[in-house]
Design brief:
Helix content of chain A: 55-70%
Number of helices of chain A: 14
Shape of chain B: globular
Chains: A mainly alpha, B alpha/beta, C mainly alpha
Strand order of the largest sheet of chain A: 1-2
Number of helices of chain B: 14
Oligomer: heterotrimer
Number of strands of chain B: 16
Shape of chain A: globular
Distance between the termini of chain A: 17 Å
Order of helices and strands of chain A: HHHHHEEEHHHHEHHHHH
Largest interface: A-B, 45 and 53 residues
Chain lengths: ~350, ~400, ~290
């Protein structure tokens, strides 16, 4: 068995599991589980957007939530003004992408790199947070949509079947849409990364100077990667606004930005499946920690077990120390060492790991 | 009915569950009641007392034999100051736990997240926090006070005491914006003048420049509608600048987050506030309530807050309606509540106002005095006049929105 | 005139508080390339240490200037020995670990202290400038910041510890080859950074209040200041604080706090665009 075959098997496996998930979940689970999975799928698309930018493009973006939030706000504002969802959906992808392109041009053509990129992107998302947060007054509106400040925009109308605004997509429909979108994003990114473009951006990540000397312009390639990532995050934001019919400035906040980075680290950088797994795992954990709290106990144990940040913090620290490479690469290593004990050729796979996943 | 795998699984699960419960002491399954509040993160200072009060109310109900002969079970969700979790937990409460009622939401933002979800899945909702007013939704009941109930009383009281020129500092969100408009309205109506209204995002901690601006304006008193942990630093910096002695302050947000305990007496004594409930209210219902609260949560419990009492009263009102309806069915309970149910609560008589689904209740003006709140003046049975100006659910039962009230 | 003096004091105060909250992070990041996302929580712990000490009858000055830095410094050393030392050279992983640490510390303080903690009020009273009154404590904060920065300068410039620290910072391998023990230097550095954060948290506690989640209000700002300052710890922190602090405060005074905040952030973006290595990447290169 060679690397290529292994890669194809992995790809096939993801496809089969994904489609099985898509078809079976609404049949076997109650609506509340379906709704919960819907938001996990949406967030997983967001995780993939950073997986591309950071994991493959090597651009440490601490403000992915800026594009996510812009997507959600754009959809909400456009929806209140237009009333039919096709154009708002497109805008929710185009506006964040354009914003990412502008910001990317500003950064990459200014030769800003490394941790400075992180700070600029973080700063941008905090500016958006502060600005949107201070739009509580009635004078802040775009067309008929009030921005609402801290309280955000509630009651966002859902997507409809393109062209027919009287046929909104229902809750199960949203699940199918989100899951299908996630699968499409995953396979789309796999294709992209297998293409010439994908090879070049990974090459730039590995050694920017060398890629430049070979005649590729790293700035342009980074800009393109960043813009694609911004568009994906905006698309996820649009779906998110649909799922909760709601958007508020906390979507731009520090906690949200850090969360996206954590998904990618936990799942494993340099893979695509990893951030999906990390995202769903962390989301599930956050929800589980908040659900079914013991109430009113004043003894120590109750205080500790009811303390979501305490437990979550311990889990994260333990995770970094015990699973340093992230979930999926570590599982991959375990799998390979199992394989290696059977056949020696598996060893040759090791250096190629960066391109798989 | 089309039988597919899901309904099949559901019904077998139901049979299994019924089998399990038949052996218990209770004739039927417990009645599920959901609590959705922030118990960690920045807003836990408000959420924890609310859940404690709800816990006590439910334990009292169970000790008295439950509701309709059934136990009441609290399902307690911690939203961790995260809006996304409000949506998720509201969905779970309605669909998975099939609760009879949801008590929850702290900020108006969280309420507007929960409200449509519970409307969609037909689950009764109680919002127990003081807020800006204007929500008109037959599925929702609001037990907190609105600006017309408190600001209207406190403005003339403070103006009589201190003078006519007012400087308003307010949290920069819906509640602060609307409350400051009400302040302006009542100050003008009472022949005074608002010299300026300044808004601060909820995470601002540096108030130096503002304090200088206030000094330049020389108002007779300052009205604070500041909210949350960060804004406590305003009172600190105000006192540190030596301003507390020369310019007094009034507020309808101070002390909800126990600010009067966090700050030293030197920093806030003499401040005027106005709410529905104070722990030191002198009436027999309240005295026995405070005693049992302290027995349950310890006598060192810092303070039973306005929001905690709102939650306690919210549950009691709902329980009263369930008794009257003889059922936990949503529509029957709503109809029972709409008969204008009332209870003798620790804060005095509390009655549901049928057209607005808000409450008619007593309000009190108090003064901060050495970490306590000393009640100065009582106003019996205040109507939610602001919401009533826009909302009539008896005439338009299908109305469903939050009005922006013209001030 | 009196207004101008008052404004000048407030601008100085903004600069001083920004420098105070950033300098601990600057040391940890500058020397060790560790992005400490639990930095805000170190500041928060400093505040709690001061509160607990004063409530046990210790004078407020000793509580703030001695107890808080020692307590938080020790916590820093423990954190370095138990978590950070496994993660050197893995900048990204330290981010995840310190984010976890930050949540953990917030949860722990909430469990221990609850969320209604009696704070400490600012000592020293107030004084009059023309028509205005302002807090004398403001001047104290400015003084503390100046003293802290001066001490760091002296230590870095003229002591053996400073020499070793600068050496390790410039080239850890070389320093190691010359007989320096990097793990020990790192533990001390991390402890010192934490201690300075504890000091800053305690000194600012009477102004900003103390509650478990206050760290969030600090961490982004200090991070931006440190990066904006660039590689040199001291001159970087000072110059970036001076720039951002005065922009923030003047904008706040002229317009609103929101605009002040946005002006600070926008200034940071423009600064990094113009000077991609931070201020000291271009100016004061030979500074500390």
């Amino acid at each position: 068995m060679n690397a290529r075959a292994l890669n194809l098997i992995g790809l096939g496996l993801v496809g089969v599991i994904g489609i099985a998930f898509l078809v079976l979940v609404p049949r076997f689970f109650e609506l509340d589980v379906v709704l919960e999975f819907t938001v996990y799928m949406i967030m997983a698309i967001l995780a993939l957007s950073l997986a591309l930018i950071w994991g493959y493009g090597g651009i440490l973006c601490f403000g992915q939530s800026a594009f996510f939030g812009l997507g959600a706000y754009t959809y909400a504002i456009a929806m209140f003004n237009i009333g039919e969802s096709t154009v708002p959906l497109l805008l929710a992808v185009i506006v964040p992408a354009a914003f990412a392109a502008l910001l990317g041009y500003f950064m990459f053509y200014g030769r800003i790199s490394d941790v400075y990129l992180g700070v600029i992107t973080l700063t941008v998302t905090l500016i958006l947070f502060n600005s949107i947060n201070s739009t509580a007054g009635p004078e802040f509106h775009i067309g008929s949509a009030r921005l609402g400040g801290f309280n955000g925009i509630p009651g966002i109308p859902p997507l409809n079947v393109p062209g027919n605004k009287r046929a909104p997509i229902d809750l199960e429909g949203m699940f199918y849409l989100a899951t299908a979108a996630l699968l499409a994003t995953y396979f789309g990114l796999r294709l992209l990364l297998a293409s010439r473009f994908g090879r070049i951006i990974v090459g730039i990540r590995e050694n920017e100077r060398r890629a430049e000397l070979l005649g590729y312009d790293p700035r342009a390639y980074k800009l393109a990667t960043f813009t694609i990532g911004g568009a994906l995050a905006g698309f996820a934001g649009c779906l998110f606004a649909n799922w909760g019919n709601f958007v508020s400035p906390t979507i731009f906040g520090l906690a949200q930005s850090a969360q996206i980075i954590i998904w990618v680290i936990v799942g494993g950088r340099g893979t695509l499946i990893g951030p999906i797994v990390g995202c769903i795992g962390i989301q599930w954990l956050t929800t589980a920690l908040g659900a079914n709290q013991p109430s009113g106990g004043s003894d120590w144990w109750a205080k500790i077990f009811a303390n979501a940040p305490l437990i979550f913090g311990i889990i994260l620290i333990a995770f970094v120390l015990l699973v340093p490479k992230g979930l999926v690469p570590t599982l991959g290593d375990i799998g390979q060492s199992l394989l290696a004990s059977r056949g020696k050729e598996a060893k040759r796979l090791q250096p190629k790991r960066a391109e798989e996943g | 009915m089309r039988v597919n795998r899901r309904t099949f699984l559901q019904s077998t699960a139901a049979i299994a569950a019924a089998g399990m419960f038949s052996s218990s002491a209770w004739a039927e399954d417990p009645i599920n009641v959901a609590s959705i509040h922030d118990l960690s993160g920045g807003l836990d200072i408000y959420g924890k007392p609310m859940v404690d009060a709800l816990t006590l109310a439910i334990e009292e109900a169970n000790a008295a034999g439950g509701l309709l002969g059934r136990q009441v079970k609290l399902i307690n969700y911690d939203t961790q100051s995260n809006m996304q979790l409000y949506t998720q937990f509201a969905q779970q409460a309605a669909l998975k736990d099939k609760v009879a009622v949801v008590h929850g939401g702290i900020t108006s933002a969280s309420r507007e997240v929960i409200r449509p979800v519970l409307d969609k899945f037909k689950t009764l909702y109680f919002y127990n926090t003081q807020y800006e007013g204007g929500v008109c939704d037959r599925n929702q009941f609001d037990t907190g006070v609105t600006p017309a109930q408190t600001v209207e009383k406190l403005v003339p009281h403070a103006m009589k005491k201190w003078g006519k020129k007012v400087y308003v500092v307010a949290a920069d969100y819906n509640y602060g914006q609307i409350t400051s408009q009400w302040v302006k309205k009542y100050v003008t109506e009472n022949g005074g003048e608002v010299s300026s209204i300044d808004f601060f995002p909820l995470d601002v901690t540096n108030f130096g420049p503002t304090i200088s601006k206030i000094q330049a304006a020389k108002p007779d008193f300052v009205w604070s509608a500041l909210v949350g942990g960060a804004h406590i630093s305003f009172y600190r910096q105000w006192a540190a600048a030596g301003m507390r002695k020369s310019i007094p302050m009034a507020s309808t947000t101070f002390a909800v987050g126990n600010e009067h305990i966090v700050l030293s007496p030197d920093e806030c004594n003499g401040m005027l506030i106005c709410y529905n409930y104070f722990q030191d209210l002198k009436n027999p219902v309240n005295e026995s309530f405070v005693a049992s609260f302290h027995k349950r949560f310890g006598t060192d419990y810092p303070n039973i807050t306005e929001l905690a009492m709102g939650t306690y009263q919210g549950f009691r009102l709902w329980a009263e309606a369930v008794k009257k309806a003889g059922s936990v069915d949503r529509m029957k309970v709503i109809e029972a509540l709409e008969t204008g149910i009332s209870i003798d609560a620790p804060s005095g008589k509390v009655t549901i106002d049928p057209p607005t689904h808000h409450c008619v209740l007593d309000v009190h003006i108090a003064e901060v005095a050495d970490k306590k709140l000393k009640v100065l003046e009582d106003f019996a049975q205040q109507k939610p006049a602001d919401t009533a100006a826009v909302c009539d659910l008896i005439k338009n039962p299908t109305d469903n929105q939050q009005y922006v009230i013209k001030i | 005139m009196d207004l101008a003096v008052l404004l000048a004091i407030q601008v100085l105060y903004a600069i001083a508080s920004l420098a105070l909250i950033s300098v601990g992070l600057a040391i940890i990041f500058g020397m060790m390339r560790v992005i400490n996302l639990a930095h805000g929580e170190f500041l928060m712990l400093g505040g709690y240490a001061a509160i607990v000490a004063t409530s046990h009858g210790i004078s407020i000055w000793i509580a703030m200037l001695v107890v808080a830095p020692i307590v938080v410094g020790l916590i820093g050393v423990v954190v370095e020995r138990t978590i950070i030392r496994f993660l050197y050279g893995r900048m990204i992983d330290t981010m995840l670990a310190t984010w976890g640490l930050s949540l953990f510390l917030v949860g722990l303080t909430t469990a221990i202290f609850g969320n209604t903690t009696v704070g400490i009020s600012a000592p020293l009273g107030s004084f009059q400038i023309g028509a205005y009154r302002t807090s004398a404590y403001t001047l104290f904060v400015i003084t503390v910041a100046a003293v802290v920065l001066a001490v760091i300068f002296v230590v870095m410039r003229w002591t053996r510890l400073g020499l070793i620290a600068r050496g390790t910072m410039q080239n850890a391998n070389m320093a190691s080859a010359l007989g320096v023990n990097p793990p020990r230097v790192y533990a001390i550095t991390f402890g010192l950074g934490a201690a300075l954060s504890g000091l800053a948290g305690a000194v600012l506690a009477p102004v900003s209040g103390v509650f478990p989640t206050i760290g969030v209000a600090y961490v982004a700002k200090s991070f931006i200041t440190v990066i904006g300052g660039g590689a040199a710890i001291l001159s970087g922190t000072v110059s970036a604080s001076a720039l951002f602090g005065s922009i923030n405060q003047i904008a706040t005074f002229v317009t609103t706090p929101v605009f002040g905040e946005v002006a600070l952030l926008a200034a940071a973006i423009i600064l990094i665009r113009l000077l991609p290595q931070g201020i000291t990447g271009r100016f004061f290169r030979r500074g500390l």
